[in-house]
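Late entry, evening session. Most of the bench is empty. Finally got around to the prediction I had been postponing all week. Sequence below, unchanged from the version circulated by S.P.
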Amino acid sequence: MLRFIQNGGLRLVAAGLGVCVLCSCAGKDQKIERPDQMGDDRAVRSMDRIMAAQAAAGAADDATLLPSHFDGEHLNSLGTGKLYLMVQGRGAGSQPMVVYLDMPEGPVAQARRAAVEKHLKDTAPELGKVQVQLGANPAAGAYAAPIIARQNKTESTADQRDQREQPSYKAGDGTQGR
């Protein structure tokens, strides 16, 4: 350490610290220009357009309103939002719009059907006649038949389980499955 100081090492360290101080102080008055990484929150980005298109396509494909889309007999904001997405997701020149109400038949279901028809007539008159049907959308969901057909291959009977649980050695003879 003493040799380092005698050979001018202390001057070298002091010079290095001086350069660091000067460099750090030089830029305080200057504003560093950087592009805004996040952008304006109100700007529509390509990601937003893609998400909106996906949501609209999904809503149009599902085409089902559930009891959670209603407050009593009236559409709530979730229901009106889903109907809006259904309209947006329809392809040009597509077949007439069909909306499924997945709920049991009755006076409440009829009032909800009328609420859906009125809402679509008021907000999207270009659709013309809209079919509102009670029941689940037959085109939505997975078919259970192939899953049920494979079920017996994945489940074992009680006898098969009992055989697998038996040890493969005889108690007391020290042999193991020989």
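Two things to note before I forget:
Residues 155 and 161 are 10 Å apart (CA to CA).
The radius of gyration is 36 Å.
Will write this up properly tomorrow.
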